[in-house]
Amino acid sequence: MKTVASYFRIIGFLFVAFVLIELIVDSGGQMAVIKYPLISVLFGIILLLYIAFEVCIAALKNVLFRGLSPEAQERYLAAEEKRKANQFAGLKRFYKKMLGSKPIEKEHEIILDHNYDGIKELDNNLPPWWIYGFYATIVFAAVYLARYHIFDGTTQAEEYEIEVAEARAAIEEYKRTAKDLVDVNTVVVLTDAADISAGKAVFQTNCVACHKTDGGGGIGPNLTDEYWILGGGIKNIFRTISEGGRDGKGMISWKQDLKPVEMAQVASFILTLQGTTPAEPKAAEGEIWVDPDAPKEDNPQIEEATDSIQVTIN
Ligand code: HEC
Predict the structure, then answer these.
(1) Which of 68, 160, 254, 297 has a C-alpha 20 to 30 A away from that of 237?
(2) Which of 213, 240, 243 is the pocket-test mutation for ligand 1 (most atoms within 8 Å of CB)?
(3) Where do the DSSP E strands lie in the chain?
(4) Helix or strand holding residue 114 (H, E)
(5) pLDDT digits (tens, 9 = 90+) for 35-62
(6) How far is the C-alpha of 307 from the C-alpha of 293, rounded, in Å?
(7) Which residues pair with 111 in a beta bridge?
(8) pTM given for the model
(9) For residues 218 and 210, is the Cβ–Cβ distance under 8 A?
(10) Could you tell me if residue 294 is left (phi over 0), alpha (psi between -120 and 50 degrees) or otherwise beta?
(11) What residue segments make up the domains of the chain, in order of their start?
């Protein structure tokens, strides 16, 4: 007893299951089935179970039908027939109403006097579906007029601007989360405690042999003072770590061993050492580094720095 309805039920059931799973399983922007391929197996099992259920119901009906007396069978079939004929009766009525055409036997009521060589013209009403569509356009026009011409809705140009701004924000957001995208041009000082302690860990593993645990310097220069051989500030420090120091001095390029984000972290950590007093500080090497991008009011700092040169010289 396979019926068309049972196929529809299976498809409908599967659809509901699909929507439910997509709603329940949190899979971010992706579809759950794509993110977790196991879910498709689950679907397969659900489908099989449901088909089995349909088959059981059909078999049960069949058995019950055969158990009936011939007259009862007859009555049952007749009732089924009637039910089928009445299926979608409401829909059919609605369709007829929307068509609004006169039945053929009543056409004489609307026939016009025109007679073109035997071809006659009917004066049918406009079909209701068309008229309702027309009313809908009037309502739409009124809403549109009010929204865009009276209440200043966003124009297409403004919509474009808004979307571009959103896209920019999304790119910024992406860059912030994808820290590994940093390079010497985009690196900024990281201030998160997590980043600093990650940087410290990198420093302890790779750098202390030459720069000492407290950055006081040994083979490598003192990293706690404001004197820099290769330039201070996050960008220069990042570049030194990434590309290495001057040839033959011992500071190798770390970009093969450290990820960009690790270099940014350790560079930020080094900046936190500024001004600390290491146990055995190595004498200053290089020049006092002044950030060329710093705003003008930073000038007092330069004076302070000059003072401290005198202090060290004395
Ligand atoms: C083998 C020893 C050695 C190791 C290991 C080492 N460095 Fe260096 N480092 C040096 C030397 C030597 C210099 C000076 C380079 C120059 O004069 O060109 C230097 C310079 C630097 C500078 C620039 C200092 C300045 O005054 O401009 C920074 C920043 C730096 N190192 C950071 C690190 C970091 C971070 C690590 C670990 C990932 C590290 N170093 C590992 C030896 C080392």
Answers:
(1) 297
(2) 240
(3) 111-116, 119-122, 227-228, 287-288
(4) strand 111-116
(5) 888 888 888 898 899 999 989 998 998 9
(6) 22
(7) 122
(8) 0.51
(9) yes
(10) beta
(11) 4-85, 193-295
Nearest alpha-carbon partner for 240 in 179, 302, 295, 187 = 187
Write out the two tokens for 110: 């609307």
Residue nearest to atom 1 of ligand 1 (CA): 250
Alpha-carbon distance values, 5 to 12, 13, 83, 126, 180 (Å)? 10, 12, 13, 36, 55
Superfamily of domain covering 193-295: Cytochrome c-like domain (1.10.760.10)
Residue 267 exposed, middle or buried by CB count within 10 Å (0-12, 13-18, 19+): buried
Which residue carries 């073109």 as its tokens?
A: 116
Cα–Cα distance for residue pair 211/7, rounded to 1 Å: 75
Q: Which amino acid is at 3?
A: T
Which mutation among 206, 251, 262 tests ligand 1's pocket best, with the greatest number of atoms within 8 A of CB?
251
Give the nearest ligand 1 atom to 250 CA: 12
pLDDT in tens, 160-175: 999 999 999 998 888 7
> Tokens 């500071």 belong to which residue?
251
Confidence tier at 27 by pLDDT (50, 70, 90): confident
CA 125 – ligand 1 centroid, Å: 91
